[in-house]
Every structure is written in structure tokens, then in C-alpha cells.
Amino acid sequence: TSSHCGKNLSEFKPVANFCLVLGSESHGIEQGIFERAAETIKIEMSDQIESLNVASSAAILLYELGKK
After folding, report:
1. Which residues make Cβ contacts (< 8 Å) with residue 2, sequence separation at least 6?
2. What proportion of the chain, given as a percentage, has pLDDT over 70?
3. Is the pLDDT of residue 9 over 90?
4. Which residue in 26, 30, 37, 42 has its CB near the most CB atoms, within 10 A?
């Protein structure tokens, strides 16, 4: 996942087996891991919202991906 780039979560179609990697806002994801990703997704947010903490992001992502 990324807070700045990638496919919107609503458009993401997960394959049968995938790995969801989350990083903290301050440190993000290690560049080597980020480069290995086949796809990057982001949570759509209003321009008035600066960011979400990792726990909130994880809850949203797991809820939405569980419905697909």
C-alpha cells in the first residue's frame, strides 16, 4: 500500500494469493520490498485528510478486501 501512489482500493482486484504490506507513515515500506510489489494500492481520501495511521489503514483495507 502507499499513501501517495497506486491503484485506488475500489479498483483493486486481488488475485487468489497476495501479500498486503503496510508501513508506518514516518518510515514507510523498505524500498527493496516496494520495488518487488506487482501492484500498489491506496485508500481514496479527501484532500482535506493528510493521512491515516497504520492501524486505521489496516482495518479499512482488510474490511474492503474481505468483501472481494
Report:
1. 29, 34, 40, 41, 42
2. 100
3. yes
4. 42
Burial 32-55, CB ≥16 within 10 A → b, else e? eeeeeeeeebbbeeeeeeeeeeee
Contacts of 1 (CB under 8 A, 6+ apart): 20, 21, 22, 23, 40, 41, 42, 43, 57, 61
Q: Which of 67, 61, 29 minimizes the C-alpha distance to 44?
A: 61
Q: What is the pTM of this model?
A: 0.80
